[in-house]
Amino acid sequence: MSAAILPGENEPLFYLGEFPVRLITLLVALHSGAMITASLLIASGHGALIDLFIYSSTAVAHGQIWRLATYAFVASPSVWFLLEMVMLYYFGREVENGLGWKRFGILYGGLILLGPLLLQAFGYGGIPQTFAGAQEVNFAVFAAFVAMHPGAQFFFGLAARWVFLGLLAISSLQRLADHQPPQVLVLISSCILAVMLMRRAGFEEPLFGYGFQWSLPGLKSPKSKFSAMPGGLRGSVAGNRSSTGQPSPSEGATRVDPELEMDGLLEKISRKGMNSLTATERASLEQARQAILQRGGRNSK
């Protein structure tokens, strides 16, 4: 992982008392509120109103474009919905912390629109499509989390990358068994989009433990990569060095032992949790981690 956070974007949107309210909190609340509303409409005999918000390629073709987004918030009460919201909050919070709330909002909005746009092509091709729920969108958020932390430990010590691959395979087979190949396309495309955006944001750890680079004759791959902070973490460090590769005087005068800095930040995390770190402290933690890794690499030679 090699991304930094833009100052201010990792802070909560606002506070309710002492409770920090983040974008992921609002999204979970919106999904839950929409589910409760749908349940009350069905219980009162007005369930037909819900059909106005489900995605339908035929209805969209006739101008009902709001369905391109509202379908994602149509759900019925179930234990699976509860588990889905728990997973969305847990993994979405980490992705929002890594991207900042603005970029996370763009990611989530793009994932919501991707599915209907793909299915609309089937509709124009003479295969009408209907769609409701945000299962594919929320699974893609999990894919974004795996792109950030592919080696995170899950059930029975399995790395997140393998849990993701297994769930993706099972979900795809389930949709194929239900004769829903377009939904398989939506699921896989959503995951690819999420992973690609995380790569663009600077999270470059190989997803399956191996890195791949394409090289064409006469074409050099660009050295600079987009990151959440202009210039990226590595760019900000390089900016403090002179053209000869040596640290600038100001850097040498203010350098802090990375192990001591990391110890202090980890102690704060153990006392107050990860969310207690400011954007600057998160960037410092990542810089200290990279410095320790580089020092270990030099000592092993």
Q: How would you explain this protein's 3D organization?
A:
The protein is mostly helical and 301 residues long. Helix content is 59%, strand content 3%. The strands form two sheets. A two-stranded antiparallel ribbon has the order 1-2. The protein has a two-stranded antiparallel sheet with strand order 3-4. The longest helix is centred in the middle third of the chain and has 24 residues.
Helix/strand layout:
Blueprint: E1 14-16, E2 19-21, H1 23-43, E3 55-56, H2 57-61, H3 67-70, H4 79-99, H5 101-124, E4 130-131, H6 135-148, H7 160-177, H8 181-200, H9 232-238, H10 249-254, H11 258-272, H12 279-300
Antiparallel strand pairs: 1-2, 3-4
Helix pairs in contact: 1-4, 4-5, 4-6, 5-6, 5-8, 6-8, 7-8, 11-12
